[in-house]
Amino acid sequence: MDPLISPPLPSDDADLPTIVEGSPQSFVGDVVEPSKKAPVFVYFWMSNPACEQFTPLIERIAREAGARVRLVKINVQQYPEIVQQLQLQTVPAVLVFQNGAPANGFMGPIPEDGLRQFFERMLGAPVADQTATTLDAAKKALEEGDIGTAQALYSDVLGQDPENADALAGIIESFLVSNDAPSAKAYLQDVPEKLHSHPAIASIRARLELAKESVPSHETEALSKKLTENPNDHAARYELAMAEFANGNHEAAIESLLEIIRRDRKWSDKAAHTQLLKFFEALGPEDPLTISGRRQLSTLLFK
Length: 303
Description:
The protein has 303 residues and is α/β, with parallel strands linked by helices. The chain has helices at residues 27-32, 49-65, 81-85, 112-123, 130-143, 147-160, 165-177, 181-189, 199-213, 220-229, 234-246, 250-264, 267-283, 288-302, and strands at 19-21, 40-45, 70-75, 93-98, 101-107. The protein has a five-stranded mixed sheet. The longest helix is centred in the first third of the chain and has 17 residues, at 49-65. It is elongated, with a radius of gyration of 27 Å.
């Protein structure tokens, strides 16, 4: 008898969990018999960087598919004989069993879109992206001022995917909205370095840095007076831009820095240019002011 095939284990299909740890000894009960009723996804993994990134992804999509999916995980380091018997060339690898035999599969990690399409193709039905749904609900709660609900929803996502940049940015944003800057900074410090360039994370980091550099709003009148007396007082215009941005008058702040560049693009070692890029980062790449501001900056720099 093939050592992969052992006598069926007693089981109640209604009680089968979505995700189980498999072994050669339980292969029939875990995979072969259930596959006669519905596709069974067998995930072969080991302790390596590729699997560490891929495992949370495939588990999340399996959960999103719900009762339609049975995912059996097999550690090939613990059961190396499986590698030889199934001729696995690399891991992570996935084989889908139908009617007691392998019907489809792939080797090596694939992107989320490709994995979701693979599940949908094998199941013959779409798999709703619950993470996206939860993130949308969290964003809506935050916009409505329901901080507690937003934080709970973002935490749910992070419980399944600790490195979800949108959820990390969302929960940090929730602390900023509730004026809890220390908690926001603490979360931001723990964000993995590889996520620092994510637009939402970069935006929050830039906003916190700008907050430290801001000028008290009551000084704006005095700064405006200085500029009336001397339009080439770039230091005053620069401080005014900082105050305008801190007060939420982002368009005026951007225009102030652009005016410095029009008059003297090299002023103070291109300080206006550098600060303008920080403004764009804080607003985010899709903000209309960022798009318009970048266009104007390009025109000034290449005219």
